Give the backbone structure.
Amino acid sequence: MSNWAPGGALASNVEITAATVLRGDIIQVGGRACRVSDLFQLAQGAKQLLFESGELLTINGRTRLVAVRMTRRR
């Protein structure tokens, strides 16, 4: 599903894994929307996500999450 967001961006729900997560993805954690500001590669395909709030989330290679990804309209 895709929706238009303010500013001409396209917001779409995507399934993400440690291999596909990107900076700027918005993940709902504990009922709060958290935007990924940085990523750190860990052993065995895991990644540590740093959110804009300063919180960290570590996901392994088998973790599957749903995120909102913003893409610019061309």
